[in-house]
Amino acid sequence: MDRLVIDGWGKFIGTDHEQIIVKEKKDGVNTVIHRCIPQNLRQVVISGRGSISTDAIELLAEHGVDVVLIDWRGQVTAYISPPQMRTVNTRREQYRAFDTPAGAVLAKEFINAKLHNMSATLGTLSKSRKDTFPDSAEALKIARDAANVWIDKLEKLNIKGKSCSDMRETIMGYEGNASASYWKSILAIIPDEFGFKDRSGRYAADPVNAMLNYGYGVLEGECWRAVHYSGLDPYGGFLHVDRPGKASLVYDIMEEFRQQIVDKSVIKIFSLGQVKPDDFTIENGICKMADGARKLLLNELLTKLESQVRYEDKNLKWTDLILNQARDIAQFLRGDSKTYKGFWLRW
Questions:
Q1: What does the alpha-carbon distance between residue 232 and residue 234 come to, in Å, rounded to a whole number?
Q2: Cα–Cα dist 175/112, whole Å
């Protein structure tokens, strides 16, 4: 199944005889530039100032297609999903688990997977630079070893009889220390001209953070879909703090995929010189990507999401892997499985 991405300005999504059509205004005339049947779609992503009719939303919902709106900063501003298809039992168990050891198991596994993926990413980057940039390769190797120290500490952390509330601060402390080493080493392989100093979070101050934020927004939309189709409540997380309007469980699941899907894609773009400083502007202190840079990143990410990865002796699309992880969480919470294993790759 395909993902329909509407990027840019002034595009309109509507319907025509049970088909989804995309129109664009050219020379004062609305012209159909794309046409497809909803049965062939899995998701619609709107990035930019496009619009969509209620008829299109209803037709997409009838065929189980969700709609994700992402702004220029990479924030998911809206998520429109088909009706919930699972029973309420999964969500009841999800809420109960917050105050039980099951919640602590999930919180620990989310970060265990993240730290392993950090280590694997640093190892891959170090190996690829061993002959061409030996000093950089050695720095990346040292950062990988530092991440492995925190992995070891986390694996030895005793959570027996504890809830996620009891363990969250300690687990996030380990993650924070590992992340500091991780980003410091990444800084050294990004060209100085892009002004990357550190991971700045939500409000990007430089091109690297602008691309990371946008990439995480695309990943967030995919994790929203996985949570929805697994019958889980996106707002009932275990690792991230509950706040009104914060999709904590979506962010929890994202932790397992940030490095392998987004970080590697962004680092590749900068390492290969596919963007220049002129592809970015600063508006009110926030870095903004030009259309070309955004489209380049979107293409890289969407190609990655549809590509296959070898995991547990199976070839799976990244999109299916994310969905499988969400389903595994639901099964664990319902008691259909005794354990939950976070996703991470060796290399």
A1: 6
A2: 9
pLDDT higher at 8 or 331: 331
Query: By the 8 A CB rule, do 213 and 260 touch?
Result: no
Task: Indicate the residue type of 104.
Answer: A
Tell me how many degrees the CA angle 148-307-188 measures, rounded to the nearest 5.
40
What the chain holds in terms of domains, given with CATH numbers, is 2-70 (3.100.10.20), 89-334 (1.20.120.920)
Give φ, ψ of 233 to 5 degrees: -90, 115
Task: Tell me the whole-structure pTM to 2 decimals.
Answer: 0.90
Whole-angstrom distance, CA of residue 294 vs CA of residue 102? 40
Place of tokens 């395909």: 2
* Structure confidence by residue, pLDDT tens digits, 168-226: 999 999 999 999 999 999 998 999 999 999 998 778 999 999 999 999 999 999 999 99
Residue 84: per-residue pLDDT? 67
Structure confidence by residue, pLDDT tens digits, 254-287: 999 999 999 999 999 999 999 999 999 998 889 9
